[in-house]
Amino acid sequence: MTDLPPDLARELAIARQAAAEAGATALGMQAGIGSEAKADGSPVTPGDLAADAILKHHLGLHFPEDGILSEETAPEAGEPRRWWIIDPIDGTREYAAGGREWCVQVALAVNGVAVLGVLDLPVFGVQLWGIPGLGAWIADANGIRPLEPAGRNLQVLIGSGSRRNAESLAHLHARIPEFGLLHGHSVGVKVHRMLAGEADLYLHFRPIHAWDVAAPAAVLEAAGGIVVDPRGQPLRYPHRRPTMDGLAFTLRPDLPEILGRVSAP
Fold it and tell me: Tens digit of pLDDT for each residue in 229-245?
């Protein structure tokens, strides 16, 4: 693996270890697990909480000066220069239903910019990680190797499989009808599927949380993809603003044209 910047090598090693441990723990708890509704109506399971505790333990122990923004706990006070953005289980509904498409997501943001991301997909036996501007890697049954997109210009759009996003996705797809359409759950799993050659465009033009986006965006960008907001602007992660306007992820060179078509009145 390429030598990493000294100030990120330790961070990446700890993030990978924490994500792997959290993923293995959640996977071991998945069979027959129940869920409860949080105040916002989204589900949470004991697996989410266990994974959250593991991630926070590792990150808090090794980087006590950094902030942590997690789906499962309230934002911390203060305005740290560095903060970890974590989703202990992205795809909780799928996880609680006994499905495959869920992912542990860990990202580090410095001054609002994601500088590394880790995606751990326990059911698939895969971990992806990347540092934008340096590269991305995959670890699976075949070992560790550079992560390179398996295909480009596929004309396949991947989008959320949830009912609450169905209308928005249908509207977007109607603007680019020549694209095939796939549905998925976790953002991290969608990025894994894109890099595996199943799709080359992911659009989500509704509010979405930073913990859903930061790690997948960092990995895809590190692998050579483009990650922007619905206006085509770079993604940023202010510490005190966990909700974002949406996203556009692609492996295609014609994203400006696509954004113009889907955004036209």
Answer: 999 999 999 766 788 99
